[in-house]
Design a protein that fits this description.
CATH architecture of the largest domain: Up-down Bundle
Distance between the termini: 61 Å
Number of strands: 6
Number of domains: 3
CATH class of the largest domain: Mainly Alpha
Strand content: under 5%
Largest sheet: 6 strands, parallel
Number of helices: 29
Helix content: 55-70%
Strand order of the largest sheet: 3-2-1-4-5-6
Length: 629
C-alpha cells in the first residue's frame, strides 16, 4: 500500500502542475496522471478499485465542507431548485436515455435502469471545477449544487426500485454499495431506518457534537481535534451507507447541522487539506481504472454510447437552465459542469448487475462509458469556458445593443467591472470623462444595470473587441480584471495592436506587479498595497504620531516600495538576485525613513504633545525631503 501511495502522490506532483500550466485545470491533470500510471500505460497504479474506495472519502469531505457553508434557512431557500430542477433532470434524462437504450435493443427494464444510473452527475468534478473557477456561488453554481443534492437524495429510492426491474439471473452483488441489513426490511421499515438515520444525524450535530468538541478543545491537543473532526465525517458517512443512502449526503447533512457551531471554522481548516488530497487520489483512481481493453474491444458501440449520453445530459441541462431563465452563459456553465456521468454510477451499475437488472457485458460496457465520461468532463468544461462562453456572451451583447460603442472623445476603456474597476469607472465618470466598461460576467452586468451603470459584455483579450470599444483612438486602458492570467493577456494584446495606448493595471501582489511592469505597463496598482498602507498610516496615528508625520512616513514608504517593484521586475526570473536586491532595498528603505524621522524631528515632538496637536495641525505642510526618497 505504501508503494502505491508513493506512485499516486508522485503522479499528482507531476501531472497537476503541468496541466495547470497548460490551462487544463487540476481535475483533468489528476485524470491524465491516473491514465498514465494505469494498467494500459505504465502499469504502476496497482489495484485502482481498492484505492477508489479509500479515495471516495474526498467526495464525502467536500460535501461536509459545503454543508458547513450553509445553514438550514439557505437550504430551505433552495428547495425549489433541489426538487424542481433536480427531479426534472434525473427523470427527464433517465427517460430519454431509456428510450435510446430501447432503440439499441434493450428491454425496457434494463434500459430504464441504465438511463436512471447514467442520469447521475459527478459531484466531485462538477463542484470542484466550479470551486476552482470561483463560480460556486454563481447562478450556475447554485443550480449545479441543487441538482447534485437531489441526485444524492434519489439514490435510496433508486436502490429500492432496481430490484423490481430484474429480468436476468442475479449475479454476486458487488460489495460496497451499502444498505445490507436494510435491504431485508419492508418498505416501511426501510423508510423508518432512513428517517431515523437522517434525524439522528441532525440531532447529534445540534446537541452532541458541541459538547464533544468543547471537551476535545479543552485538552489543547490539536491532533485530537483533528481526529474528532475526521471521526464525525467518517462516522456519519458509515451510518448513511448502512441505511443505503449516499455517504456524501450524510456528510452534507452533518455539515449543515454544524453550520452554526462555534467550531465551524476550526473544522473547516482541519478537514480542508484532507479533502483536497483525497479528491486528487479519487481522480487519479478514476483515470487508472478506465478499462481501455474493453473500449478497444467495442470502440464503435462505446463511443456512440458515450456521445449519446453526453448529448442527452447536456441538452436536458441546457433546456432546464434556460427554462429557469438563466442567461446563455450561465446555462452553458451549468450544462458543462454536470454533463458527465457521476462516480456513484460505478456503485449503481454493480448493484444492477448483482440484482439481475443488467446483464454482465452491458454493465461492464456502461462502466467504461462512465469512466470515459468522467475523464472527458473537465475537457467539456474547458471547451465551454474557452469557446462557448465567449461566443454566447458576444451573442448576448449583440442582442443588448451590439458591440461597445466608439466615443469620439478618446474614452477610457475599463476592462473588468468588479469591485476594483467599478470604483475607477465611477470616479472617472464623476469627473466628466467618457468611460467604456467591459466585463464577461453576465450576472454582474445585470446587477450593475439595476443601479444604472452601463457595462458592455465583452472579453477584453480579443483584439477585435478592443478595437470596437475604441482602443485605436482611446486615451487610456485600465485593466481591472481579477484573473491575473487574463490581465496579462489583455496587456499583451493592447501592446501588440495598440502600442500608443497607455495602460494602467491591477495586480494582486508583488509577483504579479513584476510581470506587468516587465510588459511595459505605465502604472501597476497592487490591490492590497494601498489599503494596507492606509492602515499603517492609521496605526501610526493611533500610536501617537501626528497626522502629518504619519502621512509623510507613508509617502516615503510608498515612493521607495514602488520604485523597488519597478527596479526588481527585471530580476523576477533570477530568484537569487531578486532576493539579494530586495534585501538591499529593504535596508535602504529603513535608512531613508530613519533619516526622514530625524529631519522631521520637530514635527514628531509636536505630534506626541497632545496639547499642541491642534496648533501643529494648523501649520503649513512641511516641504518634501530631498534625500532618501
Amino acid at each position: 500500500m505504501m508503494a502505491a501511495g508513493f506512485v499516486y502522490l508522485a503522479a499528482a506532483l507531476v501531472g497537476v502542475p503541468l496541466a495547470r500550466r497548460l490551462g487544463l485545470g487540476s481535475v483533468l491533470g489528476y485524470l491524465l496522471a491516473g491514465i498514465a500510471i494505469g494498467p494500459y500505460a505504465l502499469g504502476l497504479a496497482g489495484d485502482a478499485a481498492s484505492v477508489m474506495h479509500f479515495a471516495e472519502l474526498g467526495v464525502v469531505m467536500m460535501l461536509f465542507l459545503i454543508g458547513l457553508e450553509l445553514d438550514p434557512r439557505t437550504l430551505w431557500r433552495l428547495r425549489g431548485p433541489i426538487f424542481g430542477m433536480g427531479g426534472l433532470q434525473v427523470f427527464g434524462t433517465g427517460a430519454l436515455l431509456a428510450g435510446a437504450g430501447m432503440a439499441a435493443g434493450l428491454a425496457w427494464q434494463p434500459a430504464l435502469a441504465a438511463g436512471l444510473v447514467l442520469s447521475m452527475s459527478s459531484t466531485a468534478i462538477g463542484l470542484q471545477s466550479l470551486q476552482e473557477r470561483g463560480l460556486l456561488r454563481s447562478d450556475a453554481g447554485q443550480k449545479s449544487f441543487a441538482v447534485l443534492l437531489f441526485q444524492d437524495v434519489a439514490v435510496i429510492p433508486l436502490l429500492a426500485l432496481f430490484p423490481l426491474l430484474a429480468t436476468f439471473p442475479p449475479a454476486a452483488a458487488a460489495a460496497g454499495h451499502g444498505g445490507g441489513w436494510v435491504e431485508s426490511l419492508s418498505a416501511g421499515g426501510r423508510a423508518l431506518a432512513v428517517a431515523g438515520a437522517v434525524g439522528g444525524t441532525i440531532g447529534a450535530g445540534r446537541f452532541l457534537v458541541g459538547p464533544l468538541m468543547r471537551a476535545v478543545a479543552s485538552t489543547g491537543q490539536r491532533e485530537l481535534f483533528l481526529a474528532a473532526a475526521l471521526l464525525i465525517v467518517v462516522g456519519v458517512s458509515l451510518l448513511m451507507q448502512a441505511v443505503g443512502l449516499s455517504p456524501a449526503l450524510g456528510a452534507f447533512l452533518a455539515g449543515v447541522a454544524l453550520a452554526g457551531s462555534e467550531y465551524r471554522h476550526e473544522l473547516q481548516s482541519d478537514v480542508e487539506p484532507f479533502k483536497g488530497l483525497l479528491l486528487g487520489v479519487f481522480f487519479l483512481a478514476v483515470g487508472a481504472g478506465i478499462d481501455f481493453r474493453l473500449v478497444a474491444a467495442a470502440p464503435g458501440r462505446i463511443a456512440l454510447a458515450f456521445l449519446v449520453v453526453s448529448a442527452v445530459k447536456i441538452g436536458v441541462l441546457w433546456a432546464l437552465a434556460r427554462g429557469a431563465r438563466s442567461s446563455r452563459v450561465e446555462s452553458a456553465r451549468f450544462a458543462a459542469a454536470l454533463g458527465q456521468v457521476g462516480e456513484f454510477a460505478f456503485v449503481l451499475l454493480a448493484f444492477c448487475e448483482g440484482a439481475g437488472v443488467l446483464p454482465g457485458p452491458t454493465a461492464r460496457e456502461l462502466v467504461a462509458v462512465t469512466a470515459l465520461s468522467m475523464a472527458a468532463g473537465p475537457l467539456i468544461i474547458l471547451f465551454a469556458d474557452r469557446v462557448l462562453v465567449p461566443r454566447l456572451g458576444s451573442v448576448a451583447a449583440a442582442a443588448a445593443g451590439g458591440e461597445p460603442p466608439v466615443d469620439a472623445q478618446n474614452p477610457v476603456i475599463v476592462a473588468g467591472a468588479g469591485r476594483f474597476g467599478q470604483v475607477v469607472g465611477r470616479l472617472l465618470r464623476a469627473q466628466g470623462h467618457a468611460v467604456t466598461m467591459l466585463d464577461v460576467d453576465s450576472d454582474q452586468l445585470a446587477v450593475l444595470a439595476r443601479f444604472g451603470t452601463k457595462v458592455w459584455f465583452g472579453d477584453a483579450r480579443r483584439q477585435d473587441l478592443l478595437h470596437a470599444a475604441g482602443a485605436h483612438q482611446a486615451g487610456l486602458l485600465v485593466v481591472a480584471v481579477e484573473d491575473h492570467a487574463a490581465a496579462v493577456e489583455i496587456v499583451r494584446v493592447a501592446r501588440a495592436h495598440f502600442p500608443h495606448l497607455p495602460v494602467l493595471a491591477r495586480a494582486r501582489g508583488r509577483v504579479e506587479a513584476y510581470e506587468l511592469h516587465a510588459l511595459g505597463v505605465e502604472g501597476v496598482f497592487r490591490e492590497v498595497f494601498d489599503s494596507s498602507l492606509r492602515m499603517g498610516e492609521a496605526a501610526l496615528r493611533v500610536l501617537g504620531h501626528g497626522a502629518h508625520a504619519a502621512h509623510r512616513a507613508a509617502n516615503v514608504f510608498r515612493r521607495h516600495d514602488e520604485a523597488a517593484v519597478v527596479a526588481l521586475a527585471s530580476l523576477r526570473q533570477d530568484t537569487g538576485a531578486l532576493v539579494n536586491s530586495a534585501r538591499e532595498r529593504i535596508a535602504a528603505l529603513e535608512q531613508a525613513m530613519a533619516a526622514d524621522r530625524r529631519e522631521a524631528g520637530e514635527l514628531a515632538d509636536h505630534a506626541f504633545d497632545t496639547g499642541g496637536l491642534r496648533a501643529w495641525a494648523t501649520q503649513p505642510a512641511a516641504p518634501k525631503p530631498e534625500g532618501g526618497a
